[in-house]
Design goal:
By secondary structure, the chain is an alpha+beta fold. It folds into 5 domains: 92 residues; 168 residues, 3-Layer(aba) Sandwich (Rossmann fold), CATH 3.40.50; 99 residues, Immunoglobulins (Immunoglobulin-like, Sandwich); 245 residues, 3-Layer(aba) Sandwich (Rossmann fold), CATH 3.40.50.880; 98 residues, Immunoglobulin-like, CATH 2.60.40. Helix content is 24%, strand content 32%. The chain has a 9-stranded mixed β-sheet. A 5-stranded mixed β-sheet has the order 10-16-15-12-13, with no helix packed on it. Helix 1 packs antiparallel against helix 2 and helix 6 runs parallel beside helix 13. It is extended, with a radius of gyration of 37 Å.
Length: 734
């Protein structure tokens, strides 16, 4: 049946248009010498105008289906993993004595009760009982709850639906917002009666939320493993975090967890031997804690020997340079190259020394970290072209650069080069040579500095602040005003301030794919007093490794590959970055880099990385992780015979469905309100039968097809206009 819905305005516009079109058709027909042909054309004209008017009145083709079955009541019950949480109170209508059971057991008790018998009495209604969100036994980590899909499906399948009863905790983490399904129910005249199951407050629990361990570390060095813990206990808990590997080695850290709060912390782990190992971070079950399954997480970390290539550029061989040279030379994981540009004697020569700054891309690209001492732009020092190469290396090839200013103030001249943007601090132009101190001044660690691996001089985070307090002070510091936005200040001057606050002296920042460190003192060599090389060597070794970390994630002869995030979760996107080189070691200018990706279930795909607009052989691409487990990557230059670079990314499985979480009745309340139903509390189950019995009989199912948006109607209208216009041409009328 055709149904029109004009507004008063469109109604009169349409009538007026039809009257005027009719008059025009009659006048044209009377004036025409060929009334037969003209009559057909004018009929087509009026038919086209009438079609346009009808479309303006929003026509719909409506069909009504009268049900030939009993009215149906659908009972949908949540079978997801969150329903295993034991926080549901059994009412006396379902049990002889009140008891606390799991949400799933509560639902089973309710479904097995005689509550629903009155709804089926005398054949008044037919019950349909359907579960939803049942976990996939082969992939429980990706199983979740979709409240929209089961409601939409039951609306599509059933034509004589009287009401829907939903037993759920309201936890939804997949699919579309369930309010959309509630809106469809309202249009059908089918009310929703949700029964919220579970407690609105969280169970007493300590939950190890996340562990953000690096994917690899250096043999013989410490790695920092950050983690976060959430407590829903109403009291303070003293506990320990315990790391344990497959061999039984352990490291622990004492923790104090405040009541009902989240704690972010980290623990150090020393890598003793080469190879990959599985490590478990766990927290003991506290008194009164009801969920023990979320107190531990496992992760894999690879230990490998590393050869870090470092370039140190300096002018005068000051004490800081001499001891830095010794520290890096004696580090077995560092390959040191020095460029000493003495202003009077000229470049130094000898073992580990070069006589000029690398002028070609392939010569500079081999360095992982560059230290810039008291050196700047000028005769016998660096050129602006050298500075442009350093910036390109940092931003495009994940290199690190360390600024080590000195009392000559040569680094101030770098502000006129491309290195100005890399410098993480604003310098004081009134004191270009820095500020001397008459007494030794201390460095104070910031909150970020106390947690950073760069400033970790002790074997535990507890002893680290005390070590820094005992370090000998400095007698000179760089002319720093404040740190730039987007930087991380690790240490500040213990005694001096500017109008912006304490003077920042150890500052880091990211730059493209690389890292930058600013060291605003030249007295780190004094840390050797009384302890020899203990802290001095450790600090600079950590700096070299931290700044070259991404660059050495996976490297080969022709391709270097790095990626973020290091430990993705299913559903996240991996950003791949690669540096490719030609057979001579120069950045690849023409060619393609492909990455073969093998998923944990054996599926393979090939990803061709896109070349960036630079001369640094930089490529990038993205792919999505959809399964937990190891994802194997093989990157190679297309057509090259060199061995591909291989690495493995471990995707951590994160359960969408978590036990111990509070129920979310507010979602169910909103759905009931939209559908014109009502939330039935667990202790009001007897009222549910009364509510449903009071409902009217299901109205006939009405199907509407809006003709004004139907492509077939629009196509027919265009064809009618084309026929009329063609007829006019053939009739000789213009």
């Amino acid at each position: 049946m055709l149904h029109l819905s004009p507004t008063p305005l469109t109604l009169w516009i349409g009538i007026t248009g039809l009257v005027l079109t009719g008059i025009l058709c009659v006048v044209s027909w009377r004036r025409s010498p060929h009334r037969g042909r003209t009559g057909v054309l004018e009929f087509l004209r009026f038919l086209a105008a009438a079609t346009a008017v009808i479309l303006l009145w929003q026509p719909e083709w409506r069909t009504i289906t009268h049900p030939d079955t009993k009215p149906k009541i659908a009972i949908l019950w949540d079978d997801s993993r969150s329903m295993t949480t034991a926080d549901a109170q059994l009412p006396l209508s379902l049990a002889d004595t009140p008891a606390v059971v799991s949400r799933a057991d509560w639902v089973k008790k309710a479904l097995a009760s005689e509550l629903w018998n009155p709804l089926q009495a005398d054949g008044a209604n037919e019950l349909i009982i359907l579960p939803f969100a049942t976990p996939d036994p082969e992939n429980t980590a990706l199983s979740g709850t979709d409240l929209d899909a089961p409601l939409t499906n039951v609306l599509e399948k059933e034509t004589n639906l009287r009401a829907v009863i939903l037993l759920s905790d309201g936890d939804t983490n997949l699919g579309q917002p369930p309010v959309g399904a509630a809106q469809k129910m309202r249009l059908r005249g089918v009310p929703l009666f949700p029964i919220p199951v579970g407690s609105k407050t969280r169970l007493p629990d300590i939950d190890l939320l996340a562990v953000s361990a690096p994917t690899y570390g250096i043999v013989g060095e410490n790695v920092q493993i950050p983690f976060s813990i959430r407590s829903s206990l109403d009291r303070q808990v003293r506990t320990i975090a315990r790391l344990r590997d497959e061999a039984g080695r352990e490291r622990t850290k004492e923790l104090i967890i405040p009541p009902n709060s989240e704690v972010y912390d980290s623990i150090l782990w020393r890598l003793e031997q080469e190879g990959s190992s599985t490590i478990e971070l766990s927290i003991p079950v506290a008194d009164g804690e009801l969920v023990a399954s979320n107190n531990s997480q496992e992760f894999a970390i690879a230990a490998k020997p590393e050869r870090i290539r470092v370039l140190v550029v300096e002018t005068l061989p000051r004490w800081e340079y001499r001891f830095l040279h010794n520290a890096l030379t004696r580090d077995p994981g560092v390959e040191l190259t020095c460029l000493l540009l003495h202003p009077e004697l000229g470049p130094a020569t000898g073992k580990d020394y070069i006589t000029e700054f690398p002028s070609k891309l392939e010569e500079l690209a081999k360095f992982d970290v560059i230290f810039l001492g008291d050196v700047g732009i000028g005769p016998g020092q660096l050129t602006k072209e050298n500075c442009a190469l350093i910036r390109g290396l940092v931003e495009n090839q994940a290199c690190g650069v360390v600024f080590l200013p000195g009392p000559k103030g040569n680094q101030a001249t770098l502000l006129d080069t491309e290195l100005a943007d890399l410098m993480p601090v604003f310098l004081d132009a009134d004191h270009p040579t820095g500020n001397p101190e008459t007494i030794a001044s201390p460095l104070d660690l910031t909150t970020e500095g106390r947690k950073s691996l760069l400033t970790m001089l002790g074997n535990s985070e507890e002893e680290n602040p005390e070590i820094w307090r005992r370090l000998p002070g400095f007698y000179w510091y760089a002319p720093v005003l404040k740190a730039k936005a987007g930087t991380e200040v690790l240490a500040v001057h213990g005694n001096r301030r500017t109008k912006f606050g304490p003077v920042p002296l150890i500052v880091t920042k990211p730059a493209g794919s690389g890292k930058v460190l600013y060291m605003g003192i030249d007295s780190a060599w004094r840390w050797r007093r009384g302890v020899e090389d203990l802290y001095h060597y450790r600090f600079w070794g950590q700096v070299a490794r931290w700044m070259s970390y991404q660059r050495n994630m996976a490297s080969g002869q022709r391709v270097r590959l790095f990626y973020t995030p290091e430990r993705p979760v299913p559903g996240s996107n991996i950003s791949l970055n690669a540096n490719a080189f030609d057979p001579n070691g120069a950045p690849l200018q023409e060619g393609a880099v492909t990455v073969d990706i093998t998923s944990p279930d054996g599926r393979t795909q090939r990803l061709e990385l896109q070349q960036n607009e630079s001369a640094w052989g930089a490529y990038s691409g993205r792919f999505k992780v959809d399964l937990p487990g190891p994802w194997k990557l093989r990157a190679a230059v297309t057509g090259a015979e060199d061995k591909p670079v291989e690495t493995t990314i471990i995707a951590q499985g994160v359960d969408l469905e978590k036990t111990g979480q509070p129920a979310r009745p507010e979602i169910l309340e909103e759905m009931a309100k939209v559908s014109k139903g009502r939330v039935i509390q667990p202790n009001q189950l007897a009222d549910l039968v009364k509510e449903i019995n009071a409902l009217p009989e299901p109205r006939p199912l009405e199907n509407r097809i809006p003709l004004w948006t139907d492509w077939r109607v629009i196509a027919g209208f265009i064809a009618l206009l084309a026929l009329f216009w063609t007829g006019r041409k053939l009739n000789g009328t213009f």
